[in-house]
Amino acid sequence: MKTFKIVCPECSTVNTITLEAYDGTMNCSQCQVDLDNPFPIEVNDESCTTHITENEIPVLVDFYSTSCGPCMAMYEDYEDAALGFGLQVIFLKINADKYQQVARRYGVSSLPTIIAFKKGEEVNRISRQLSQVELDIWAKSLI
Ligand SMILES: [Zn+2]
C-alpha cells in the first residue's frame, strides 16, 4: 500500500493518506477540513516546523514581514502561484517579525526569503521578491 503524509492546513494534525483509498477528496482526520487547500497557509513557529518536517510533499516557506515593502508586493503573486499547485507543493507563509524561531534556525537574515524543503531538507532559497512566473517555475521544479 502506498501512503503519504500531509499536514492539515487548519489544525496541523499529520494525516496519513492511502493512495488506494483516495477518491478525490481528503479530509483531516481531526478537524475534517479539506486537505486539498489551494491557498498559502499562514503558520507560526510550531506549525511551520510540523509542516516542514512531516509533509511528504515539497514545501515552500515565505518568510515575510508586514513592514517590508517587497514582501507585501509579493503577497498576491504568492497567492496566485499557490492556486496552481494544490497538493503538489505546499505554500506556507510565516511572519518573521512575530515568529523568529524558524527564521533563526534557518539563518534567514533578510526579507523576503523563500526556502524550498523536501522531506524536511532545505533544497534551495531565494532572498528577494519573486514574480508569480518565477514562483511557478520554482515550484514546478520541486515536484
Ligand atoms: Zn485538521
Commentary on this structure:
This protein is of the alpha/beta class. It has one domain (37-142): Glutaredoxin. The chain has four helices and seven strands, in the order βββαβαβαββα. The strands form two sheets. Strands 3-5-4-6-7 form a five-stranded mixed beta sheet, sandwiched between helices. Strands 1-2 form a two-stranded antiparallel ribbon. A hairpin with a 2-residue loop joins strand 6 and strand 7. The chain is globular and about 45 Å long. The two termini are 21 Å apart. The relative contact order is 0.18. The model has no long low-confidence stretch (mean pLDDT 95). The structure holds zinc ion. Residues 8, 10-11, 13, 28, 30-31, 33 line the site of zinc ion.
Main attributes of the structure:
143 residues; binds zinc ion; two-stranded antiparallel sheet
CATH fold call:
Glutaredoxin
Mean pLDDT: 95
**Shape estimate:** globular
Looking at CATH, the homologous superfamily is Glutaredoxin
Number of helices: 4
- Count structural domains: 1
Bound molecules: zinc ion
Number of strands: 7
Binned, the helix content reads 25-40%
For the CA atoms, what is the radius of gyration? 15 Å
For the largest beta-sheet, the strand count, sense and barrel status come to: 5 strands, mixed
Coarse structural class: alpha/beta
Fold topology:
Layout lengths: L2 E5 L6 E5 L22 E3 L1 H10 L4 E6 L4 H15 L6 E6 L5 H5 L7 E6 L2 E6 L5 H11 L1
Parallel strand pairs: 3-5, 4-5
Antiparallel strand pairs: 1-2, 4-6, 6-7
Helix pairs in contact: 2-4
